[in-house]
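Final paragraph of the annual report: two paired records, presented back to back.
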Amino acid sequence: MKRQIIEALTFSRALVRDGLDTPECIHDTNYDPDDRECVECDYGPECRWLFENDEFAALEHKPLEHLVDALEFALGCVGARTSRGGHNHHTCGCDICRWQRRAQRLRDRVPEPG
């Protein structure tokens, strides 16, 4: 299950990163939790998510609950993007909507904690 979530996060990282429009960002979208501008930035949640879930974050060592939270955040970001684009993610055949359906099925298979 963890491996599948990590694989799903790989595709969503690119989508989240592509959705950032921050030409004035002094950190080039590399979140700095100590910088007030990052914390208050409209893109702060996305940048923080990328920082915590990038390919170098040793995701395989993170608890399943953390990965599920990351997947839920990705589903929200991608869902917002497909909605703004007028996609019907239930029937659309584009790569993003297909990812969204697969990721949601994966999320639905994760048992609720205790």
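The closing record of the year follows.
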Amino acid sequence: MDDKMYTATMEFVTERVNYHGENEPKGLWDDYEAFKLAVERLKETLTKEQLELFLDCETFYSAVDGGQMRFYFEAGFGDAVQFIMGWREGWQGH
């Protein structure tokens, strides 16, 4: 994939991720709210040292989860674009 196509693909992926992030299913939002409440309740039970470790874990988990989601989404989308572009090029050659 050339640089222009890659840039266009990444811009499109970012746009789609943002769109879906703004339009999540209600069930997913409900699960997130339940998780957030459970986290807050857990934080109230931790010692100061445990809370510091928990906050570190929470921060790093968010980074890993977000990065992993974006990596797999971009990889899958990139594969789909390459497949379509390859198919199109093969079809035009006949």
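Residues 15 and 21 are 10 Å apart (CA to CA). This concludes the annual technical report; the extension proposal builds directly on these records.
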